TrEMBL record, chain A:
The keyword Transmembrane helix applies. This is Uncharacterized protein. It comes from Polyangium fumosum. Residues 151-169 have a biased composition (Basic and acidic residues). Keywords: Membrane, Transmembrane, Transmembrane helix. The chain crosses the membrane at residues 40-61. Residues 132-169 are annotated as: Disordered. It comes from the Bacteria.
Automatic annotation (TrEMBL), chain B:
FAD binds at V233, P502, Q503. Residues 36-67 form the FAD-dependent oxidoreductase 2 FAD-binding domain. Pfam families: FAD_binding_2, GMC_oxred_C, GMC_oxred_N. Belongs to the GMC oxidoreductase family. Residues 391-510 form the Glucose-methanol-choline oxidoreductase C-terminal domain. InterPro entries: FAD-dep_OxRdtase_2_FAD-bd (IPR003953), FAD/NAD-bd_sf (IPR036188), GMC_OxRdtase (IPR012132), GMC_OxRdtase_N (IPR000172), GMC_OxRtase_C (IPR007867). It comes from Polyangium fumosum. This is GMC family oxidoreductase. Transmembrane segments: none annotated. Its cofactor is FAD.
Amino acid sequence: MNELVRFALTAYYPRVDDLPGLAELGVDEKIQRLRRESTLLFWTGIVAASVAFQIAPLLTIRKPLLASWLSAEDLDQHAHKMATHPGYLVRQVTFLIKLVGGMFWGQSAEIRAFLDLTPYPEDPGTRRVEAFVPRQGPLPGGAPDKLLSLGKKERDRGRDKDRGKGLQA
Amino acid sequence: MSTASPTAAKQHTGTAHGHHATFTSFAQAGLETEVDFVVVGSGAGGAAAAVVLARAGYRVAIVEAGPWRAPEDYPWTTYGTIRDLFPDWGSLVTQSRALWPIVQASCVGGSTVINSAIVVRTPGDVFTRWEREYGIDGRALEKRVWEHQDRIERELSATVVPPDARGLLNTLAMDAAEKLGWSSHYMVRYAKDCEGAGQCLQGCRKGRKQSTNVNYIPEVLERGGYVLSTAPVKDLLFDGRRVIGVTGRFQDPETRKFGARFTVRARKAVFVAASATQSPILLAKSGIKSRALGTLFRAHPGTGVFGVYDDPVDQNIGATQGWASTAFRQDPGLKLETLAIPPEMVAGRLPGGGAELIRRFREYRHVAMWVAAVRAESVGTVKPSLFGGPVVKYQLDEADMRKLRKGLSMVTRMHFEAGAREVIPGIFGLPYKIGPDEIHLIDEGPTDPRCYVAILSHLFGGCPMSADPRQGVVDERGKVHGYEGLYVADASAIPTTIGVNPQHTIMALASVWAENLVS
């Protein structure tokens, strides 16, 4: 099952030039985790979408083959055409694969580095068992220089005078 | 797995003096208690009602289906957000021709944790319409709602997005609106000293956004109240036609298996504020008889276009949402605004797949997303499924689809005014990118909802308010017609769309209805 899902996800996010593909970004561990953590409904949807991806080349590139038997070039065409298919349900099935693959691929440290973004830390996944009141004191950090210089320009243009125009529709 | 520990992360803050009960193990004992008021749900409506009651000296119990996550527990990633903050992994979609996702949170604080905390006062014409169509004393309600909105703005630090937190996503939109001569503004939000971290959708880890879990709910605890988290209410308890409490079983948020039973009895009343999709379901499953139950479900569906600029925009640096125009609220019935979505969501949102998708994604730093939300008149229903969850049937009619299309055309025009070289409309049947001379393609575009990737985030109705029990579930005091001790205090009671972000309206309405019981 995991292999089936892996095949579909990696077909949508292949390596292109210097941008690594999902297959190179620890996808197996991510799929195992998804299977473990997601709901039965969500996981079933992903598996069903992956099955549809396997059997749909006839719909997209007119070849009566399973997707896993296609050449690399045909597979890429198949992935693109499924995502842009005239049939709404076909596009929706694809949307689920793209959503999950997009999360795995787009939040990886390598892709974030390409975008000049720092890597995401690990999601804590914690919750409160005690009655917890966060205090609202100043927290470490501050706006980055890029925002500060833009803010200065805004003030220079007099755009800091609005005292709540947006309150009233 | 990373969600395994239900413990605190590094704790550098205080602990409230109150009673918080949550799922801890399958061996934990059941909980039975009695308070003055039970509030089901801890989002905008539930928290606002609860704090009014607690300040009046009543013992209040807030019962929330989701877990309590403080800002330092919030996820960083979209994956973590869907896992930790969305109910059922965000799988609730409209079941109509188009399957549009319904965006809500399930956690202490509800959707106030994941929204942009946008503050807009309830427009006066909304009360006029409620009076005309639903027999509500609109003028009296208007006065009291605005009084509470005054108070809430002070308490939750409603402020304009500061210049240093705006980011290009928002300042470019202001540039465009000024060039076009359109009235617009930087948003007012419940946020204290925003730094433009761009993490509103994942929950503000800096604790700047004033979600109800960092203010009103702790206050209820401090005043001797109770919070039950991971505690989905299964049934209301009745004594004849009087509602006297709620019951359910604690739920492990990781395995979703049920544990010990809880029962909370209310000496005075129960407020249901579980959201526009959940409140009607709870009432229906508990046997409330009302022909209006589950009807008049409405929304502000929205979708956006990406402008592509020569220089990087870096839309995730700066406020997630910071600019808006409500100038078109009445005619044609639209709200225009900015919305930054993280790279991993853009990767899934851009049209195409395979190598072509990756090539398109390369422009991420250069794109800005601006959206149009429709003040829709279409109505739908919310009914329980065989498995107990909500089934939402809702679809925009032709007139509303034309509004949506018009809104996308308007934000496209704005992008070109702001200097975008191209726009990615994301509408099926249109080219991947269009230039300034091709805006007419959107104006003439499809009105089939299946051609658009939209979401529903502002929800209304399902337990609509009306003086007439045949038309509404609750009266103008939020009380369920035909029952004693049962009130609805969330967006499900709002019988129409309002054309602006609803959190401020929901909080004020809930406050008014809670205050009625205090006085």
